[in-house]
Design brief:
The chain has 10 helices and 9 strands. By secondary structure, it is α/β, with parallel strands linked by helices. The protein has a single domain, classed as Alpha-Beta Barrel (TIM Barrel). The strands form 2 sheets. Strands 4-5-6-7-8-9 form a 6-stranded parallel β-sheet. Helix 6 links the parallel strand 7 and strand 8.
């Protein structure tokens, strides 16, 4: 939690669809301890449920799939997305994702174009999309700025993700980070393709605000929300980004309360096969 951030007045159930168990900048912390920090942050900000996104590689500062599944086990307010390293994808990994989806242990798949050199519409990815279609799960793509290396975003620009959305109109496709800094192009893609959505994770981070402009960010989100509030999902990219700042971003939009509720939780509950903890009122 950012000690300097304030808690906005939110009267909706909140589902954070973009978090990680990351030790980046947290020397000496374990992934289990980061999981506990996440649960503490959720209580502090009134987040009812979080989706935890693992890294596609083992041994990084972000927990891998098996570690994430283990740490989320028996935590009814945490769900996990599957993932795979596309350059080394094989039938065994596809079968593993299919089995995890069938047992309800994953609720979607996160892929990392840009970090890995592939395009969302590449043939090698199609078996993963078949798993998502079979189990009515979305696929979420890292999109936009990647490792401060601009050449990498050619793999995940909105136009590239839109090619997949057009090819597979029944697949639920989500663009992470509103593909910042390409927010105007992302807006146009969202309003063109019915099965394309975006999360707002990272959009309230000071570096993104500096890069894209506070008014410009609010403007594109307002345009999309006013046209179709079903397109946007609340996400934070915790622990790199502050939950309160992202709640404040949604709260600042001059849209009806019902539309804010869709962004904060309704759209996630519609797109992901989530089961909220007992006692949670939607």
């Amino acid at each position: 939690m950012n000690p300097g951030s304030s808690k906005p007045r939110i009267d909706s159930v909140v589902v954070d669809c973009h978090t990680h168990l990351s030790t980046y900048g947290r020397q000496g912390e374990t992934f289990a301890r980061i999981r506990d920090h996440l649960l503490c942050s959720m209580r502090a900000y009134g987040v009812a449920h979080s989706l935890v996104l693992p890294d596609s590689e083992f041994g990084t500062c972000v927990s891998d799939l098996d570690t994430t599944l283990d740490l989320a086990r028996d935590r009814p307010n945490l769900s996990v997305l599957g993932t795979a390293c596309i350059p080394t994808l094989d039938g065994g990994m596809v079968a593993k994702l299919d089995s995890l989806a069938a047992s309800g242990r994953i609720v979607g798949v996160k892929l990392y174009p840009g970090f890995e050199e592939f395009y969302p519409n590449d043939e090698v990815c199609l078996p993963i999309y078949e798993v998502c279609l079979t189990h009515n799960m979305p696929v979420l793509f890292h999109a936009g700025e990647t490792m401060d290396e601009p050449w990498r975003d050619r793999y995940n620009r909105p136009e590239r993700v839109a090619e997949l959305a057009e090819r597979l109109p029944d697949l639920k496709v989500i663009i992470a980070h509103f593909c910042q800094p390409h927010i105007a192009v992302c807006r146009d893609a969202l309003l063109t393709h019915p099965n394309l959505h975006a999360d707002i994770s990272g959009m309230a981070h000071p570096s993104v605000v500096d890069r894209c402009g506070r008014d410009e960010i609010a403007g594109v989100l307002l345009e999309v929300a006013s046209s179709d509030p079903g397109k946007l999902l609340f996400g934070t990219d915790w622990p790199l980004c502050d939950v309160g700042d992202h709640l404040g971003l949604v709260d600042s939009l001059p849209i009806p309360r019902a539309d804010k509720s869709m962004i904060l939780s309704g759209n996630a509950l519609r797109l992901f096969p989530l089961k909220l903890a007992p006692g949670t009122t939607v």
